[in-house]
TrEMBL record:
The chain crosses the membrane at residues 15-32. SUPFAM superfamilies: Mitochondrial cytochrome c oxidase subunit VIc (SSF81415). It comes from Marmota marmota marmota. Keywords: Membrane, Mitochondrion, Mitochondrion inner membrane, Transmembrane, Transmembrane helix. One of its GO terms (biological process) is oxidative phosphorylation. PANTHER family: CYTOCHROME C OXIDASE SUBUNIT 6C (PTHR48416:SF1). Coiled coil: none annotated. It is a single-pass membrane protein. GO terms for cellular component: mitochondrial inner membrane. Belongs to the cytochrome c oxidase subunit 6c family. This is Mitochondrial cytochrome c oxidase subunit VIc/VIIs domain-containing protein.
Length: 71
């Protein structure tokens, strides 16, 4: 009898499990967005606005011979 109760446990309240699964997934997405994506976005903006010189990088790549059309 105990095995039958364990078997029917998941099928007993399907809407509850769907709501819980949706809530956990939404929480994980929000945590990822504000814990990983936003700090990474801010770090990239800081790098490209403050420290990155695109012309200097282009000249280094051109001198290395990677660009065949820009000699």
């Amino acid at each position: 009898m105990a095995q039958l109760q364990f078997y029917c446990l998941l099928a007993e309240h399907p809407w509850f499990h769907i709501v819980v699964a949706f809530t956990v997934a939404l929480g994980a997405a929000v945590l990822y967005k504000f814990g990983v994506a936003e700090p990474r976005k801010k770090a990239d903006l800081y790098f490209y606005r403050r420290n990155y010189d695109s012309m200097k990088d282009f000249e280094e790549i051109r001198r290395a011979g990677i660009f065949q059309s820009a000699k």
